[in-house]
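Q: Given only this backbone (231 positions), what sequence would you predict?
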């Protein structure tokens, strides 16, 4: 029997859907407290509220930066990072500039990661860099990102936002999220001090156990309650 308390401490409870109201965000934080998960990952404007809602628990407050497409300028991302931390976030999930990655403008991508880590390390916050693997047609992009994150001692590399949808030939949108192949690759090419966060498509306890056994330390999910109450 899996230790559900330990599983819960792998979970970053995701509160990021654009339709979530303040009432629903508060309810999400209350659920996170109930199950004593690792953190909530919440929208930037709601960080201060999340700190208050989670008071008295050891559930951490995380915030997304440049979410979900990573297109903000470096200056905007660094400002957003610092503001989120000043508002009370202790974990930062930052989306890289995906177009710059695909264009192999590695000087730009490196500078972005460097500047964000300067802010997070200044305040002793945890940084998770989101690759959005669904948009990367070849492993070389993911490998290079792992190498840069290792160079700047990023705490986590993360598979996806959960909102990186692709369109198939029939016009329907879909995403793969955290595939086993990507998780194995990210664990292989990241330094031993860099941990792996899986996000996108993890919906069952079996999914959590499977990715944990591949070397994943954290998971980003919205199906927290159903995962932790499975029979």
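A: Predicted residues:
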């Amino acid at each position: 029997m899996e230790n559900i308390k330990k599983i819960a401490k792998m979970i970053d409870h995701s509160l990021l859907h654009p339709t979530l109201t303040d009432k629903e965000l508060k309810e999400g934080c209350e659920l996170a407290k109930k199950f004593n998960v690792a953190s909530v990952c919440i929208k930037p404007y709601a960080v201060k509220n999340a700190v208050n809602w989670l008071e008295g628990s050891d559930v951490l407050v995380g915030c997304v930066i440049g979410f979900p497409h990573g297109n903000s300028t470096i200056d905007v991302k660094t400002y957003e990072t610092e503001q989120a931390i000043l508002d009370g976030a202790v974990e930062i999930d930052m989306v890289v500039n995906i177009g710059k990655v695909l264009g192999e403008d590695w000087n730009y991508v490196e500078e972005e990661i460097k500047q964000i880590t300067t802010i997070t390390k200044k305040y002793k916050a945890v940084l998770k860099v989101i690759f959005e693997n669904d948009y990367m047609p070849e492993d070389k992009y993911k490998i290079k990102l792992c190498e840069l994150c290792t160079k700047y001692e990023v705490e986590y590399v993360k598979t996806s936002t959960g909102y990186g949808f692709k369109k198939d030939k029939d016009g329907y949108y879909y995403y793969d999220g955290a595939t086993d192949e990507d998780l194995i690759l990210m664990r292989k090419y990241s330094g031993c001090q860099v941990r792996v966060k899986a996000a996108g498509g993890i919906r069952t306890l079996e999914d959590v156990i499977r990715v944990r056994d591949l070397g994943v330390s954290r998971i980003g999910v919205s199906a927290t309650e159903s995962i932790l109450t499975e029979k």
